[in-house]
Structure formats: structure tokens, C-alpha cells
User: What shape does this take?
Amino acid sequence: MDFFGFFTDPVLRGPTIGSMLMCLVAALVGVIVFLRKQSLIGEALSHAAYPGVILGVIVAGIFSIDESNDLTIASMIMFGAFVSSLAGLWSINYLQKKWRIRSDSALCFVLSTFFGIGLTLASQVQISYTSLFRKLPAYLFGQAATMNDIHIYIYVVLALIVVFTIILMFKELQTLTFNPDFAESIGISSRYINGIFCILTVLAIVIGIRSVGVLLLSAMLIAPAAAARQFSHRLPVLFFLAGFFGIISGYFGNYLSITLSHHATAEYPNSKMIIPSGPMIILVATLICIFALLFAPERGLIMRFMRASYFRFNCLSENILKSLWRLDREHAATIKTIYSSQHISVIYLRFILYTLKRNGWIQTVNGSYQLTNDGKKRAAKIVRLHRLWEVYLAEYLGVGSERVHRNAEEMEHILTPEIERELTVLLKDPKWDPHHQRIPQKEAYEYV
Amino acid sequence: MQKEDKLTHPVFQADQVTVNYDKTSVLWDISLKVPSGKLVGIIGPNGAGKSTFIKAALGLVKPISGSFFYFGKPLKEVPLQVAYVPQRETVDWDFPITVKDLVLMGRYGKLGLFKWPRKADKEAAEYYLNQVGMTAYKDRQINQLSGGQQQRVFIARALLQEADIYFMDEPLSGIDHATETVIMNILRQLQQSGKTIFVVHHDLNTVQTYFDWIVMLNTRLVACGAISEAYNSDTLQKTYGKSYSLFDEALKLSNNKASGLL
Assistant: This one.
């Protein structure tokens, strides 16, 4: 089956489009949940939806609705989930406000109580409505495969409601999430806006339980938002990216679930294996998230590691320039002399010396190393920053002169020209450092 | 204290306000009036209820009893005439927003529910960003700002509200000298154009040079009046001295008893 086949095939388009819509909605709502650091809310509310799912099934059973009447059963289950999730939300608020229970305790209490009630009811369904009971695992782990066009219609309407509400309330949500006190002071009612947002969260959960299931749903709220945060500093972009990652997770999770199920059935024809879509969708979303955490250009771990390594490399280079400057400004130093003052391996030292030479800071004379004219200026500049900082620490911050060296050793690589200028003015361009060593003056490091 | 009670047209008035808030910061029976066009310092020791007073005045914290009046009316009738600068530390500076979008929030109150900012609002935001000297940073992410720059951005946001009364919670704490000068100049300009500014302040050395009206709080109101009359060693002693600690203790005890904790 090719890419478009999943959108046109009458059996496959239900699960495909359904999963994508559900992941889109969850990802959008998730952005705000993520920024408010309320991941547990999603977890609690999705679990709280479970007894509602079961009640929906029981009601369907009581009215002996035919198993093939998908629309009615699906609506009943979704309505049940919506109501019980809202009841969960209300219980959490009640516990926090009236009983003064801490929010994490309240969340856990509601999560386990509601889920427990759901499981108890489920065992009842197993006895009384055996045929309907077979539908239940789909809501625990998500089973997109049995969705059809009717589900798409429901999901499209719900998804549109969520998307438009978020667009409409963008500035209110932004302000309330960033600075609740200020928002309230300019007349944004946290009660109403947060109330509406809670309903959106519950809607996202209700839409999501069919394809991801109550157990894994909170991951779908957080993973796309966390991935998107790695790439952007702007809230609108964050929404777009998270939505995009959500849609991708929905498509490929569903794709994996269907193709893997095919393979499994081909391999073991008698077992009738079905790979649930929920874990597959979460798997894809998590992979995207891990990829973002590792490779994002600014915040990604790998880029940060590389920048940190480069910084260390730069510090070492400057330290070597400095020691050459101190050892003997005019004559060359052998690699042995340099090595004795550095705490690095000889190979690394040779590599640094090689790059320093290639960049024109040092030159070799009969196998020994010597600063070039440019190198002398750069070294003088580093020494100046070091000693200026020492003076600042000793004179302005009252740090004992025996303790200033260490900190200055670090700061000499960090101080910017602006800070240097301010230091020079503040300290009145001092000539001597606290150890009575000369501070290199302008003519030593500036080009004339 | 008798003197300002005679004020006939106070721009701001608190009437027997008592706040019991999270059991720690408490305000007890505060009544005061402030005339228009004053630069008002609010001082008092830690936990004296300075922030709580501002929050209660803005309706963010509900007093148990008492009420506030702006131009003789409750806040509900004049919401857009009051601007607020919260404490810098109360927000998450890693939030994904740029400097100019943060400032733009100052217009959200005027825009009303569900409306998007217009070009005019953005131009105004840029104008006030320039006034606090932050134009060069307008497209920066807010987590790249220093403490002083964060404060300037917060001030710009409040300026964009173009209100008549400003409440600022410790705008001068933890910032560099240059920013302090910039902010004080802006506050004086605001005052000259007839606005009233309330500033929660910590540095007693600068109180007399910065403010012309003072509110001294320590759970109860110690003094409120022109700085030349109300601010003296006697009131300072009362505000920061030990005489109130017994009162505090008794109040806490009574709160705990009332809520059944003791």
C-alpha cells in the first residue's frame, strides 16, 4: 500500500485520518499543558475517562443496541468518557480547593480511584455483555483499525472545535499561561478561560482514547510539544510544529500498526494477531521527541555538547598562548616545557599546537614554539582580562587576593569586549593586579 | 493620619481592608487615601503584606472584608485605568515569547476577549519599548534578557496599558544601576503627566529621594501621607521595629485556631 492508499482505501482511511486528527488535537492542547508543566493532568483525566467508557458500553448493553450500530455505540462511549473525565476534573479541583489536598496527591487519588472503578465495572461487563466486552481493550491501548468513516465525521467536528477555540483564545491562553496574575489584572478571567481550556483537554482525551487508549494518552499530549519546544521560541510556531509532529505520529503509528498486524497474521495465520495502534503512535511520537532532544540546532544535546567541547578547546588554546607569553615572550619553548604546565595528553596538546600554528598564532623555530606577533597581542589581551577581573574581584567584591586567581582563570575566556570596556572605566584603567603583576596596556594588545 | 482623611477626591482609597491569604501574609484593617499625581512608595519588612496589598487592590486576592475605590468607584467600573507590574520572579522567563510580544500583552485588556492585536497596537508597543531603551532587543527571546532588561520589558508592558494608576511590585530590586535610573526617569515622567504610581520598595536609602508619598505597612497600616510628614524615625521604628511582632503572633494564632489547625 502506498502513501496515498492510506487516505483513499475505504477500510484504511478511517483509522488513518482518525488517528491523524486525534494526534493533531492532542498535540495542540498538549502545548499549553506542557508549558504549564501540568503533564499529570492529562494522565489523570485520561484514566478518569475509563469508567465512562465502560458505562457507555453498559448503557448500550441495557438498550440492547446491536453491535453493528457503530455510530450509536461510539457516541455513547465518547459521551460517557467525556462526562466521567469532567467528573474527574471536578473532583481534582474539589479536593484541592475544599480539602486543601496538594495537587499531585489529588491527581494521583483521582487517577487511581476512577481507573479502579472502571476496571471493576469492566469485569461486570465481561459477565453481562460478553460480546461488547471485546470492544473494551481498544479503549485501553487504542485500536484505530476498526474505525470507519463515521468516526472521521465525529472527529473532524470535534477537531475543528478544538482548533478554532485555540485560535480564538490564543492571546488569553498565552497571557494566562505566562503570567496569570497579570492576565487577571487586565480582565482575563482565569475561571472562564481555564474552564474552557479544561473542556478542550477533556475533548482531546475523548477523541484520543479510541486510537491511543487511556493508558498512553498523556504521552501524546506531551511528546509533540516537548519536541516542538526544542526548535522554536515562539508560541504560534510551537503550535504549528507540535500539530505537525502529532499528525506525523498519527499517520506512521497507524501505518505501523496495520502493516505489522498484516505481517503477524501472515506469519501466524491462526493467532489473528492485532498490533494496537496506541503503542505504535506513541512510539513514533517518542522517537520524534528523542530525535529533537538530541539533534535540535540550538537546544539539542548533541549541538550543546559540541559547543561545550569547542568552548573547552578554545579555553585550552588560550591557556597555551598565555603560558607561552609568560614563559618567554621572545624566545621559543619546547613542547616539553609547554606540556609541563598543562593537564592534557600529549596528543591533544600536539593537536592544539597544530591548530594554533595553522591559525597564525604561533610559529615553530627549530622545532620549538614561539608566539607570532598576532599571538603576542592575543595572549596579552587574555592576560589583561584575567588581571582586570582579579582587580575587580579584590577591590569591588572584597574577595581576598589569594582567592581571585581561580575565578579569573575561568572568566578570562568569557569576558566580552563590552564588559572589558566597563571594567576599564570602573577600575580606572589599573596598571597592576592584586599580585603586583603588570596588567598589559592598550599598546600591548591593540593594532596600531 | 487625620490629615489625609480630609482628602475629598482621592484617586485611590482603601476602606477597612482585611486580607487573610495563605495564612502567611496578612493585612489587617487597612484604610487609606492617596491624592492624584503622587509617586507612592510602599515600604515595610518582609511578610508585611506589601504585595498582598497590591494584589488585593487589583482584585487578584479577595479581601475578607473592606473595599477599594478608584476615583470613587470600584475597580470593576474603571478596569482599564489601572496597570500592574508583577514581581519579576513570579513568571517563567523560559516561556516561548519574544520581547515585543510580551510588551504587546499590555494592550490585551483594551482589545477585549478573542480580538487579535492590530497594527496600531504593535506600533505603540514599539514606541514604549524605545522609551525603556529596549528597541534593540525587540525580537529576542525573553530568556536571553538580564534581570534589569526583564524589568524594563515589564515596565514597557505596563506603559502600553496607558492607565492612570500604576501598581509596581518591586520594580527596582535586583537590577543594575543604569536600569534603576531609566525606570525612575520614566516614573517621574508618568507622575508629571498626572498619573499616580504605587511602588513596592525595599531600599530605605532612596525612599526620600524617589517618592513624595509613602505607605508604611506592617500587617497594619503604620502611616500614609506626604513623605515629609509621614516618613520619620518614629514611623520607621513602628514599621520595622519589634512592637508589631506580638500582634503578628497573636494574629497567626487566631487564624490557625479559626481554621482548626490548632
Remarks:
- The mean pLDDT of chain A is 87.
